[in-house]
Amino acid sequence: NAGVTQTPKFRILKIGQSMTLQCTQDMNHNYMYWYRQDPGMGLKLIYYSVGAGITDKGEVPNGYNVSRSTTEDFPLRLELAAPSQTSVYFCASSAQRNTEAFFGQGTRLTVV
Amino acid sequence: GQQLNQSPQSMFIQEGEDVSMNCTSSSIFNTWLWYKQEPGEGPVLLIALYKAGELTSNGRLTAQFGITRKDSFLNISASIPSDVGIYFCAGHSGGYQKVTFGTGTKLQVIP
């Protein structure tokens, strides 16, 4: 019953450091998404993928990169961490485009 | 871009009371989704609505897809302490448009 699994759950980065947030799903979903959630705000789409090898930008892609080499995995890369990237990051997947999505537990990232 | 206004922003209610919250959009949606997020967890889908006027229940939860297609409502009957969390609406206008999330309604239940 794994669903969508994200690692790590928490991370503190220094300004300028880089890291990769991992996301894997075991439901064979073609569609995967990365969102960020800031306090008191809804979810903002960073990047999404419609299948292995295909990715596209969402609303707030600046400062992030993604790749999708397999159906299961959709890592999110931060190259030069900035304080503005302090947020909670959620990975999600869905069987159909932009419909019912299953979310991971989130990664709480703090950039200091 | 599309905007979703969700209200109320937060609410405190007594256990056993009924709860109503709603979401309004500046544009038409073809799909409305309602999610619940508990502390430290990701959102979990509660109800999905696909047709204007549709009324769908999931246990004590009932959601409606507004006739104008610009709004949706979620009701929780006989609230219990485990209903605590943040409830998000989300709308999709179809095709290649992205899902838009509301800002959430934070629900606190007083035992």
Structural account:
The complex is a heterodimer of chains A (112) and B (111). Chain A is mainly β and 112 residues long. Helix content of chain A is 0%, strand content 50%. Chain A has no helices and 11 strands. In chain A, strands 2, 4, 5, 6, 9, 10 and 11 form a 7-stranded mixed sheet that branches. In chain A, strands 1-3-8-7 form a 4-stranded antiparallel sheet, with no helix packed on it. Chain A is globular, with a radius of gyration of 13 Å. The model of chain A has no long low-confidence stretch (mean pLDDT 94). Chain B is an all-beta fold and 111 residues long. In chain B, 0% of the residues lie in helices and 54% in strands. Chain B has no helices and 11 strands. Chain B has strands spanning 4-7, 10-14, 19-25, 31-37, 44-49, 55-58, 61-65, 71-76, 85-92, 100-101, 105-110. In chain B, a hairpin with a 7-residue loop joins strand 9 (85-92) and strand 10. Chain B is globular. Chains A and B meet through strand 5 and strand 10 of A and strand 4, strand 5, strand 9 and strand 10 of B.
Query: Structural class of chain B, please?
Result: mainly beta
Termini separation of chain B comes to 40 Å
Main pleated-sheet profile of chain B: 6 strands, mixed
Secondary-structure content class of chain A: mainly beta
Q: What fraction of residues of chain A sit in β-strands?
A: over 45%
Please state the CA-atom Rg of chain B, rounded to the nearest Å. 13 Å
Rg of chain A is: 13 Å
Individual helix count of chain A: 0
- The overall average pLDDT of chain A, rounded, is 94
Specify which chain pair forms the largest interface: A-B, 23 and 25 residues
Number of strands of chain B: 11
Q: Tell me, briefly, the overall form of chain B.
A: globular
Share of helix among residues of chain B? under 10%
Note the run of SSEs of chain A as H and E.
EEEEEEEEEEE
The number of distinct β-strands of chain A equals 11
Mean pLDDT of chain B: 93
Query: Beta-strand percentage of chain B?
Result: over 45%
In whole angstroms, how far apart are the ends of chain A?
35 Å
Low-confidence runs of at least 5 consecutive residues of chain B: none
Per the principal axes of the C-alpha atoms, what is the gross shape of chain A?
Answer: globular
